[in-house]
């Protein structure tokens, strides 16, 4: 039976035709974009910045690396091959109670790499007085930049960023024996000696550090006096 169009049904039809037309218009770009695609994140407008060292022959933060200009942030840390080594040591530290203490934060790159290997419960305390960086940042800007790099880890309670001279930190530390210390602040004989002596005094279960290399003879001498590295990768040493 033929239906008679009432004024209400006419206006409903017109409204639905208008809605379909409108949808055809607005969905065009969506249809275009959702065609089967070899859409890589970059092609879709998202740039993925990989955490990778620069393709450069410039030295990393070892020896002459500390003086070079145009310093890439990924050079402001240990040698690339030593990152996996440090993470292995961090995994060993999981069986011990107590925090991981890093002496010398700089940008927090090793801090972050250690955080990737620790248990969620393990805490990293990273100490720096922000007296040195290769970009001539003021201490306040340097400390803030590092806090920004470490923001998530700090806010989630995994990392504590301590702004303090290391020797003052040593004097005032009242926490439990560290599961691991990573010594990477001042690379001369007397300061490295103080670092290792403190780590032993507080009962650190694993004592490691950076810059056991010819350019830092003082570090080599002290580490050797304490028995020499039981393990080493690039210039990262473990007593
Ligand atoms: C070689 S960088 C640390 C690099 C960092 N461990 C990494 O691998 O990513 C040395 C850092 O030690 C800090 N530093 C130097 N003397 C210090 C001191 N007496 N107390 C605390 N930090 C110090 C500097 O400000 C600098 O940020």
Distance between the termini: 95 Å
Strand order of the biggest β-sheet? 3-2-1-4-5-7-6
Assign the CATH architecture of the domain at 73-234.
3-Layer(aba) Sandwich
CATH superfamily of the domain at 73-234: Vaccinia Virus protein VP39
Q: Helices and strands: which structural class? A: alpha/beta
What is the number of helical segments per DSSP (H or I, 4+ residues)?
8
Uncertain segments are 1-5, 22-39
Small ligands present: S-adenosylmethionine
Instruction: Identify the CATH class of the domain at 73-234.
Output: Alpha Beta
Beta strand count: 7
Name the beta content range.
5-15%
How would you characterize the largest beta sheet? Answer: 7 strands, mixed
* Helix percent band: 25-40%
General description of the model:
- The protein has 239 residues and is an alpha/beta fold.
- It has a domain at 73-234: 3-Layer(aba) Sandwich (Rossmann fold), CATH 3.40.50.150.
- The protein is 39% helix and 11% strand.
- The chain is built from eight helices and seven strands.
- It has helices at 7-33, 80-93, 109-115, 139-149, 151-155, 166-172, 189-201, 217-225, and strands at 100-103, 124-128, 159-163, 180-183, 207-209, 231-233, 236-238.
- It has a seven-stranded mixed beta sheet with strand order 3-2-1-4-5-7-6, sandwiched between helices.
- Helix 7 packs parallel to helix 8 (217-225).
- The radius of gyration is 28 Å and the shape is globular.
- It binds S-adenosylmethionine.
- S-adenosylmethionine binds next to helix 3 and strand 2.
């Amino acid at each position: 039976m033929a239906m008679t169009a009432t004024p209400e049904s006419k206006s409903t039809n017109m409204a639905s035709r208008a809605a379909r037309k409108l949808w055809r218009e607005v969905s065009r770009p969506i249809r275009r974009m959702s065609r089967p695609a070899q859409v890589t994140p970059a092609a879709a407008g998202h740039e993925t910045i990989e955490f990778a060292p620069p393709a450069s022959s410039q030295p990393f933060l070892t020896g002459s690396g500390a003086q070079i200009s145009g310093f890439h942030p990924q050079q402001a840390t240990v040698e690339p091959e030593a990152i996996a080594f440090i993470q292995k040591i961090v995994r060993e530290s999981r069986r011990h109670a107590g925090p991981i203490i890093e002496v010398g934060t700089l940008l927090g790159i090793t801090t972050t790499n250690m955080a990737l290997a620790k248990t969620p419960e393990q805490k990293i305390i990273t100490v720096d007085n922000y007296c040195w960086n290769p970009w001539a940042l003021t201490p306040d800007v340097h400390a803030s930049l590092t806090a920004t790099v470490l923001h998530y880890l700090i806010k989630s309670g995994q990392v504590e960023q301590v702004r303090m001279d290391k020797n003052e930190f040593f004097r005032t530390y009242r926490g439990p024996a560290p599961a691991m210390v990573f010594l990477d602040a001042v690379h001369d004989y007397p300061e490295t000696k103080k670092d290792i002596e403190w780590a032993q005094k507080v009962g650190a279960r694993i004592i490691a550090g950076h810059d056991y290399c010819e350019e830092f003879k003082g570090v080599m001498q002290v580490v050797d006096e304490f028995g020499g590295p039981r393990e080493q990768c690039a210039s990262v040493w473990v007593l």
